[in-house]
Structure to design on (488 residues):
């Protein structure tokens, strides 16, 4: 938020509440992601139902935020930084909700997994999961600190998420080649891997929204030379 | 900063304006593009009205007011002694906050200017001017059957469009509008805004407004004034989405003072 507050106190409070809800949503999503990853790695089937249930809270916050934003747009016709905060909050909340959904899907896949997952597969999933969780945490910190540099860093780091995703997928494929009986397990693991990668994509979106909030420009335009924008 | 290839219609250079000892404008430099709407925003008393009065030398009529610096229209200095202010004010029409029709019929309100300037040779020509002006101001359909009724019998929004028609009757190139909608209800305001949008195809328009939303809706360029200085001028889009200056941002987001 800008250094000085709005002359109209209730406007200030509305924007503050929007911020608080987004931060709350971020921290719930972070927990969900952590719980889902832990469930996969430990093949902890007990925890799945709780994770699925907790996703509801994230969805609720999303609709609360949507309603708040509609109200702010109608009541205040926000301008400049307020407009950018409003729009970015809406987009970020949608990305967080999607990350929450993906965490839930990941958790659901734990149920059909065999309890004795091979170490090498767990290892590569863990590395991917750790990176995505780190990205999410950094994105939320960057939001709190309005850090443009951090947003760019997260955005660039998505490449590493893609690399680790490919590694994990290859490992699963190799495993499958050893014995076709592993087909069902492999399918579930590929699904899990892909969902973690997609969570990473939503984190990249968050970094873009955050950059727009801070700078009033789109990150694509600032993409370093030699990395052409895909259209 | 020039925003596009539009032709500059009005160029204010190093404008300083004083009311007696009190300085109201400080070194204003502002380019206004042809056939575009430029909005001027800023808190009350920051000098917006004083500035637009510099564009048709309306400050001349205020005894204590002294204008220094230059205003060019199409490259010609308007502050030269030999400039005929009557002609200038035809070329640069003005519409005020409160609609101010003459206490005459609707017809005569429009005919007044052209009569003074001998613009019509006969009744037919004058009828024509009246009809065209009222049509340009999107008022004709509402008043064509009551042209002999007093201008003051119209609603506020209609009176304002009558004043716009009156300004248009002498074929201006520039129209200055000083808070033209602040006395109007939302529907009447919407009609004026629609009219402004239409008029900019043929005229250069400068509008002072207290409504940010109106500035966004009607203008292509916006200038923010504060305490007699111009703080930021840029495309309206830029000013309202991502202004460069903190003061501009604080003003348009309601964080002022
Ligand atoms: N006729 C006048 N005589 C003396 N001071 C004036 C006159 N008109 C304006 N001023 C002063 O000049 C400053 C700018 O006024 P104005 O141009 O009317 O501002 P705005 O249109 O932005 O509200 C104010 O301080 C105002 O008091
Ligand atoms: Mg004024």
């Amino acid at each position: 938020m800008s250094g000085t507050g709005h002359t109209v106190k209730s406007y200030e409070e509305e924007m503050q509440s929007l911020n608080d809800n987004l931060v709350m949503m971020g921290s719930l999503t972070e927990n969900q992601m952590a719980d889902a990853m832990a469930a996969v790695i430990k093949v902890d089937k007990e925890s799945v139902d709780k994770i699925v249930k907790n996703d509801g809270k994230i969805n609720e916050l999303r609709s609360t935020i949507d309603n708040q934003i509609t109200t702010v747009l109608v009541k205040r016709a926000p301008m400049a930084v307020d407009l950018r905060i409003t729009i970015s909050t809406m987009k970020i909340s949608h990305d967080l909700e999607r990350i929450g959904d993906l965490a839930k899907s990941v958790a659901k896949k734990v149920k059909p997994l065999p309890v004795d997952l091979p170490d090498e597969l767990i290892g590569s999933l863990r590395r991917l999961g750790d990176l995505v969780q780190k990205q999410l945490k950094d994105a939320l910190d960057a939001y709190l600190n309005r850090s443009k540099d951090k947003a760019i860093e997260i955005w660039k780091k998505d490449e590493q998420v893609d690399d680790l995703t490919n590694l994990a997928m290859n490992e699963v494929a190799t495993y499958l080649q050893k014995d076709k009986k592993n087909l069902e397990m492999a399918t579930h693991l590929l699904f899990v891997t892909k969902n973690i990668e997609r969570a990473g994509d939503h984190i990249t979106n968050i970094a873009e929204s955050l950059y727009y909030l801070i700078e009033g420009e789109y990150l694509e335009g600032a993409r370093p030379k030699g990395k052409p924008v895909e259209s | 900063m020039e925003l596009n290839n539009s032709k500059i219609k009005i160029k204010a250079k190093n404008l300083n304006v004083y009311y007696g000892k009190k300085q109201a404008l400080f070194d204003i430099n502002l380019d206004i593009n042809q056939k575009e709407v430029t909005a001027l925003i800023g808190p009350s008393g920051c000098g917006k009205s004083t500035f637009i009065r510099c564009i048709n030398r309306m400050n001349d009529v205020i005894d204590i007011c002294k204008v220094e610096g230059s205003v060019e229209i199409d490259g010609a200095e308007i502050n030269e002694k030999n400039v005929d202010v009557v002609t200038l004010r035809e070329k640069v029409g003005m519409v005020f906050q409160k609609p101010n029709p003459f206490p005459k019929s609707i017809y005569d309100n429009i005919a007044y200017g052209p009569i003074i300037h001998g613009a019509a040779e006969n009744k037919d020509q004058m009828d024509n001017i009246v009809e065209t002006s009222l049509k340009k101001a999107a008022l004709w359909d509402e008043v064509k059957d009551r042209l002999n009724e007093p201008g003051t019998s119209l609603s506020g929004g209609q009176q304002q469009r009558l004043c716009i028609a009156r300004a248009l009757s002498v074929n201006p190139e520039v129209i200055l509008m000083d808070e033209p909608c602040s006395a109007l209800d939302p529907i009447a305001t919407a009609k004026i805004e629609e009219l402004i949008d239409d008029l900019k195809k043929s005229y250069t328009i400068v509008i002072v407004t207290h409504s940010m939303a109106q500035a966004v809706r009607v203008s292509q360029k916006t200038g923010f004034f504060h305490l007699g200085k111009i703080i930021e001028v840029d495309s309206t889009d830029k000013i309202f989405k991502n202004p460069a200056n903190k003061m501009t941002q604080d003003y348009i987001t309601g964080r002022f003072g």
User: Anything to note?
Assistant: The CA atoms of residues 133 and 169 of chain B lie 5 Å apart. The longest helix of chain B spans residues 123-136.
